[in-house]
Design brief:
Layout: H1 3-30, H2 33-59, H3 74-103, H4 111-140, H5 145-151, H6 155-184, H7 188-216, H8 223-234, E1 239-251, E2 254-263, H9 269-286, E3 290-298
Parallel strand pairs: 2-3
Antiparallel strand pairs: 1-2
Helix pairs in contact: 1-2, 1-4, 1-6, 2-3, 2-6, 2-7, 3-7, 4-6, 6-7
Length: 300
Amino acid sequence: MSAHSSKALALSLAANLGIAISKFMVAAFTGSASLFTEAIHSTADCGNQLLLFAGMKMAQRPATRRFPLGRGQAAFVASFLVALLLFTVGGLYSVTEGLHKIRHPEAPHHLIWAIALLVFAFVLESISMRGALRAAKVERGNRTLIRYLRQSSATELVVVLAEDAAALVGLVIALAAVLLTLITGNPVWDGIGSLLIGLLLIAVALFVGAEVTSLLMNEAPPLGLRAAIRSTVDEDPEVEATLNLIAVVIGGDKLMVALQIRFKNQPTGDALIESINALEVRLKAQFPQIQHLFVEPDFQ
């Protein structure tokens, strides 16, 4: 569990906990459907972040006979469950509530309180989003946010960033719905806001679920990293050719790499073993994310 990821998760959890409590209180006071679905969303986010903490903690456990490659994918499983909860608890509930309010509109009241709370929540979510972006800055580099979300194996940061982005957009939708309800006096806008928030959460859940599923299916690391590993192998003075390279992400920052290499003629078997050991040391020093490395010499 990286310090950056832990800090981003803790900040997001603290923000969502405070926001959720405030939203429930003001939603009960005003009767706003949009605000109530936003409160459900924030509550689900709190549960999601606790689940991510548990997954990240389990992923740090050492390898055992039962789990010879470690439990790095526990973080992926936790992120997938988060996407599932975001889809069901957040998205489907909000859509159902929105449709109900559109068919059976109920006029909310004291909407000034709702507006003030939504602005306050937007400020807190912005702070959380800023913290998550700062935590992802080193790994993200010059990549766009969407590209980073699609390529990163640090699923805990991907989930936090996706949730924070969805929360900010959802708050804008909720604020627009409440303002339209206040201006027009038509409570249907409140239901429409809830419906749109639900659809937004479903879209984010599907995106996160698809990205995490790829990692659970033994996705390879980015092409640039694989090329760098191959280049390092090819530069070894005892290597004649790299015949095959298989790299798999087995955790947020952990790789398993298997190499099939044709070495130059070695005088003895011991010399070949020394060449393999020297290559392994060099690779692990240059690429510390390689957790497991297997080198198969080929003599054909």
